Amino acid sequence: MDLQEKTALITGGSKGIGFTVAVQFARAGMDIGITARTAADLEQAAEKLQSLGDGKILTMPGDVSNERHVDQWIEDTLEDFDSIDVLVNNAGIMRRGSVEDLTLEDYRRVLEINLQGTFLMCNKTVPQMKKQGGGYIFNMASYAGMKGLLGSGAYGASKAGVIRFTETLQREVAEDNIKVTAISPAYVYTDMANDAEVTKEDMIQPADIAETMLYIMRLSKAAVVRNVLIERYGQL
Ligand SMILES: NC(=O)c1ccc[n+]([C@@H]2O[C@H](COP(=O)([O-])OP(=O)(O)OC[C@H]3O[C@@H](n4cnc5c(N)ncnc54)[C@H](OP(=O)(O)O)[C@@H]3O)[C@@H](O)[C@H]2O)c1
Asked: Residue 235 has what pLDDT?
C-alpha cells in the first residue's frame, strides 16, 4: 500500500503505542484521525502531530465501548477524509489481579473496551472498506493473549478474544482486498506497563510497533501477516 495521502483512524491515539503509530503514519504522509476518552490529551497529541507534516489531523473524543461514539467517529472521519484506508484498533486498558481479586466491574470493563471495542470498530468500518475497495486493519492484541500469565485473567482473556476475532475477520474479508493483522507484543514501554518489573531498556519500544505496521503495509499484494508475536529479547 502506498501510504502517501492515505487515511488512518487510530483508537487510543492520544498516548503510548497509539500516539507513536500516529506520529509514524503522519511522517509517512497520511491523514490521521485519533480517538480517546480524554479530550485534553487528544488536543495535545494533535498539536504535536500537526507539526510533523502536511496531513490533516482529526481528534474525536469518546469511548470505544460506546456504540454511539463509534458511529459518530466513523461519520466524522468520512466527512473529513472520505475514506478509512487503515484502522488501528489500539484503545485498551489493563486491570492486573488474580481471579479472586478482580471485581466483576474490572472484568466487564476490560472486555468491553479491549474486545467489544475492537468488534464495534470493525463492525462499523468493514462495510466502508468494502465500499471503497479495500483497506487494512490492525488489532492490538498481546503476548498475554497467547499465554496465560499471572494477573492476566481479565486482560489475557480479552486479548485472546481479539486474536480469535481477528482470525475470523481475516477469513470473512479475504476476498474484499481487506487485510487484517493482530499484533501481540510483550511489555511495551508505555504508561500501561509502568508497574512491570522490567526496565525501560528491557521493554519493547512503541516505535517498534509502529515500524512493524508500516513494514507489513508495504508488503506486496499477495502477502498477508496474520499475527505478529513480538517478545522481549532474553525473555524466557
Ligand atoms: N504497553 C504494553 O505493555 C502493551 C503490551 C501488549 C499490548 N498492548 C496493547 O496496546 C494497546 C495500547 O496500549 P498502551 O500501552 O499504548 O496504553 P496506554 O499508554 O495506556 O494508552 C491507551 C490509549 O487508549 C485510550 N483508551 C483507553 N480506554 C479507552 C476507551 N474506552 N475508549 C477510547 N480510548 C481509550 C487511552 O486514552 P484515554 O484513557 O484518554 O481514553 C490512550 O490513548 C492496548 O490495546 C494494549 O492492551 C500494550
From this structure: 79
Q: What is the CATH number of the domain that holds 201?
A: 3.40.50.720
CA dist 93 → 63, 111, 139 (Å): 12, 9, 14
Which member of 136, 143, 155, 189 is catalytic? Answer: 155
Write down the pLDDT at residue 236: 64
43 domain residue, yes or no: yes
Q: Is the CB–ligand 1 distance for residue 36 below 6 Å?
A: yes
Q: Say yes or no: CB of residue 59 within 6 Å of ligand 1.
A: no
79 grid coordinates = 466527512
Positions in the chain short of pLDDT 70: 236
Atom of ligand 1 nearest to the CA of 113: 31
Q: Does a structural domain hold residue 30? A: yes
As for how many domains the chain has, the answer is: 1
- Residue 135 included in any domain: yes
Model confidence, pTM: 0.98
- What is the pLDDT at residue 131? 98
Q: How far away, in angstroms, is 39 Cα from ligand 1 center?
A: 15
User: Would you say the CB of residue 16 lies under 6 angstroms from ligand 1?
Assistant: yes
**Active-site annotation holds for 155:** yes
What are residue 118's phi and psi, to 5 degrees?
-65, -40
Question: For position 113, what pLDDT does the model report?
Answer: 99
Is any atom of ligand 1 closer than 6 Å to the C-beta of 193? yes
**In what order do the strands lie in the sheet containing 86-89?**
57-61, 31-36, 7-11, 86-89, 135-140, 178-185, 227-230
